[in-house]
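Thought: the user asked what Twitching motility protein PilT looks like in 3D. I have the sequence; next I should run the structure tool and report back without guessing.
Action: structure_tool
Action Input:
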Amino acid sequence: MISLTLRFYGDLKELLLISHDGMPVHRRLPLPTSVKDLIEGCGVPHTEVDLVLVDREPASFSRLVEDGEYISIYPPFSTIELPSGQRLQQPLSGPARFLADVNLGKLAWYLRMAGFDTAYRNNAEDRELLEQMEEEKRILLTRDRKLLMHNAVEHGYLPRSDDPVEQLQEVFGRFHLLRETAPFTRCPHCNGRLRQVAKEDIIDRLEPLTKRHYQTFSQCPDCGQVYWSGSHLRRLDPRIRELLTTG
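Observation:
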């Protein structure tokens, strides 16, 4: 029998599915197991962990634990830069591209509004999500922790809040998106990249007041939706407006 002590830090404690009262967790296992399986057995997906110390030494997810070890588990740090060899979450190889599961449609809408390439279908099954994630090298966003625990998931995030605006704030913080925004350059309906369109080309689709007061328009080449700089930004939740205008 293997006896272990685990200490979860930061908001990882909120994800634990076992009783802990804010104290270290004690586990007894019949056989050696990997750090990844040990952590996920407590309810925390590997995507939420950026540093593991086993008896104060950095450890990989694949390391097998041994009897009597003390294991410290940390989420990604926002103010501390870890040596690259210690980080378990690898840097993105390019611009952030997201894939939202069926329960995060509003979050997908907001990310597209901020200019981020975000795939979403309201009927996608888990298998389809994993296939698309791997094929298109996307960051998987889901509140299904078992889905995030899949070995194929390299980059992912489990939003903590039920509120889509707070979920957006979480994703911005986790992936440092504030300086990467390009507001109103993607279609929130279908994720297409918007392009400028001449007013005369779409004038028959405009309401009288829109025709009178606005001169600059964009259109999605994929779904045909037309956009203009109206009162949309002013009507947005102020928390979203701040994210879109700060970067």
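Thought: the tool returned a structure. Summarizing for the user.
Final Answer: Structure for Twitching motility protein PilT predicted. The chain has three domains: 2-74, 98-180, 195-246. Residues 2-74 form a domain with the Ubiquitin-like (UB roll) fold (CATH 3.10.20.30).
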